[in-house]
Amino acid sequence: MAKAPAALSHGSAAALWRLAGDRRDIDVTASHGRHGLDGSGVRLHASKLRRDEWLTHEGIPVTTVARTLFDLAEAIEPPQLKSAWDEASRLRLLRVKQVAAICERHPTRPARARIGPLLAAEQLHDEERRRSPLEDRFAAFVRAHHLPPPHTNVLVDGDEVDALWPTAHLIVELDSWEFHHDRAAFENDRDRDAEHLLLGYRTIRVTHRRLDEEPQRLAAQIRALLGEMPNPRSGP
């Protein structure tokens, strides 16, 4: 298991993730050292980071978006926290399950109560999104074309994906205009696809238009990527 380094955190991590503006001081979290601001403008936060609470982004060890938001809850006012949370959601960087897990690990920290309302609202939104028309349509499409049922809403390298056939390393992401109406979200999705490809996962993006206009071609593509022979029962 990799040892947690000193990682950029709090406001500095939020700036690197583009959730908030730059800060004058540099926030760093490390398991050893004296808490507080040193003479070089580095503010040290003495805390042990678990392996799933930090990663390397743009070549810099940094707390994950989930851990960053949790730490921010104790450092900024509620309106600014809500703004950073909303930006993470807009950029599709928000991982609700990861935030919830961090809250469970730190039951006595004030951040848990402060981030609780945002987490509860996002969990409700996630449930509503899971019942979205596109997800319902894709489930019906899989059944109609006799495709093996995928796992749904699961994590791949920390990213939640809409559908996954794990043995075939095949991901399906369901794209609707509601969640891809700005350039930043669009670019972030393509970056995720590239990162997953480096791990050996191929991604197909499915839209309402594809389900409407080319279901047979889409089914054939998925079946080929699953390594299956054409199924004569797939229907016209």
Give the strand order of the largest sheet, numbering strands 1, 2, ... along the chain: 1-2-4-3
Shape: elongated
Number of strands: 10
Backbone structural class: alpha+beta
In total, the number of domains comes to: 2
Please tally the helical runs, counting DSSP H or I stretches of 4 or more residues: 9
Helix fraction by DSSP (H/I, runs of at least 4): 40-55%
Describe what this molecule looks like in 3D.
- Helix content is 44%, strand content 19%.
- Helix 1 (10-16) crosses helix 2 and helix 2 packs across helix 4.
- The longest helix is centred in the middle third of the chain and has 21 residues, at 110-130.
- The protein folds into two domains: 7-129, no CATH class; 133-234, 3-Layer(aba) Sandwich (Endonuclease, Chain A), CATH 3.40.960.
- It is α+β, with helices and mostly antiparallel strands.
- It has a four-stranded mixed β-sheet with strand order 1-2-4-3.
- The chain is elongated and about 60 Å long.
Keywords summarizing the entry:
four-stranded mixed β-sheet; 44% helix; Endonuclease, Chain A; 2 domains; elongated; 9 helices; disordered C terminus; alpha+beta; 236 residues
